[in-house]
Amino acid sequence: MTYAIRIHQTGGPEVLSWESVDLPAPGAGEATVRHAAVGLNFIDTYHRTGLYPLPMPSGIGLEGAGVVEAIGPGVTEVQVGDRVAYAGGPIGAYAEARNIPAHRLLKLPDAISFDTAAAMMLQGLTAAYLLRKTYRVQPGDAVLIHAAAGGVGLIACQWAKALGATVIGTVGSAAKGELAKAHGCDHVINYSTENFVSRVREITGGEGVPVVYDGVGKDTFMGSLDSLRPLGMLVTYGNASGPVPPLDLLLLSQKGSLFVTRPTIVSYTAKRADLEALGAELFDVVASGKVKIEVHQRYALKDAAQAHSDLEARKTTGSTILIP
Ligand SMILES: NC(=O)c1ccc[n+]([C@@H]2O[C@H](COP(=O)([O-])OP(=O)(O)OC[C@H]3O[C@@H](n4cnc5c(N)ncnc54)[C@H](OP(=O)(O)O)[C@@H]3O)[C@@H](O)[C@H]2O)c1
Fold first, then answer.
1. What are the residue boundaries of the Enoyl reductase (ER) domain, all occurrences included (predicted)?
2. Is the N end or the C end of the chain the one with fewer CB atoms within 10 Å?
3. pLDDT 10s per residue in the chain (324 long)?
């Protein structure tokens, strides 16, 4: 027996329910992980509202860090007592302890605490594949990163800066702007009060950027296309303001032979070798201090509803963890 947050129907934060659940012995290929910390991510709100449908009833949450308590038959990746972390599923991280396929687990270096791991695995692996794989940032690139003071944003801005990019970040308030500036942004645009498209043109001498990383979605999508230089790439990787409506592909030709991609961490880490390689890059930039993981909010796991409300109300900055 253990406790977990469950959802029986989609809806507002109030549908998150703290319940006792069975925890069977791990099956073949599975490990039981006792969580020291669980990560909060915007995708959890999509699962809760039904934007990303789940079979009901369901657990929730995609990221955690803790200790392996037991392993099932055939597990080779981890041993009992290992410090581990994971991101990207299967769903059900909002739990004191859970069973999970062992091939999703990465062993944590001693330098990385459980809190840091829970705060960085999903957002950091996302920053890793966005900057290193989807569009590989080169020294001298000007890159536009939306929601620069958010979870993915603060990590991506520091990392892009460390790769030698000129980082342009958008934020929703002046205070968030200060934070983004302190974490790698060379230029900050408050998109609540300024037209980010004209500011990006101004900053890039009229040229536009080769890549936009856009986790905001509906509200920024068209402006993101208009911020690109010819042959540029819009990486639309989230829907914090709502999903992007269907796109007329002719727009991409009219606006300069543009590329648009809609990536997910699931595809980029589906193969164990890719998960390990991206994890190694992430552990390296964090352990070396190039990227600092900012845990700015902590909640008791059973208060996940409050955490969801604050995240959706744009009250959070950096990463948020839930403590069982
Ligand atoms: N595809 C993937 O693999 C993947 C993986 C991880 C995350 N994501 C996506 O990346 C984005 C960021 O995730 P995160 O967990 O790091 O969240 P986050 O950035 O910490 O929080 C979302 C931020 O989006 C901005 N935002 C703009 N319009 C908003 C609105 N109408 N409602 C709420 N927020 C709004 C807010 O910052 P401002 O106030 O500064 O505007 C807010 O703080 C999300 O869209 C998420 O789904 C995608």
1. 11-322
2. N
3. 999 999 999 999 999 999 999 999 999 999 999 999 999 999 999 999 999 999 999 999 999 999 999 999 999 999 999 999 999 989 999 999 999 999 999 999 999 999 999 999 999 999 999 999 999 999 999 999 999 999 999 999 999 999 999 999 999 999 999 999 999 999 999 999 999 999 999 999 999 999 999 999 999 999 999 999 999 999 999 999 999 999 999 999 999 999 999 999 999 999 999 999 999 999 999 999 999 999 999 999 999 999 999 999 999 999 999 999
**Residue range(s) occupied by CATH 3.40.50.720 in the chain:** 139-262
Residue 148 Cα to ligand 1 midpoint, Å, equals 9
How many CA atoms lie less than 13 Å away from 198 in the CB half-sphere? 3
Task: Give 217 Cα–ligand 1 centroid separation in angstroms.
Answer: 9
Nearest atom (ligand 1) to Cα of 266? 3
For residue 194, give the nearest of 157, 161, 220 by alpha carbon.
220
CB-ligand 1 contact for 89 (6 Å cutoff): no
Question: Which residue has the least CA distance to atom 39 on ligand 1?
Answer: 172
State if residue 297 touches ligand 1 by the CB under 6 angstroms criterion.
Answer: no
From the alpha carbon of 239, which atom of ligand 1 is closest? 45
Does the Cβ of 169 fall within 6 Å of ligand 1? no
Does the C-beta of 178 come closer than 6 Å to ligand 1?
no
Domain with CATH 3.90.180.10 in the chain: 2-121+269-323
Q: What is the dihedral sign for C-alpha 311, 317, 319, 322? A: negative
Assigned CATH for 2-121+269-323 = 3.90.180.10
DSSP element (H, E) containing 306: helix 304-312
153, 146 contact by CB (below 8 A): yes
Instruction: Check if the beta carbon of residue 77 is closer than 8 Å to that of residue 102.
Output: yes
State which ligand 1 atom lies nearest to the alpha carbon of 149: 40
Instruction: Please choose, from the candidates 233, 277, 226, 284, the residue with its C-alpha nearest in 3D space to the C-alpha of residue 251.
Output: 226
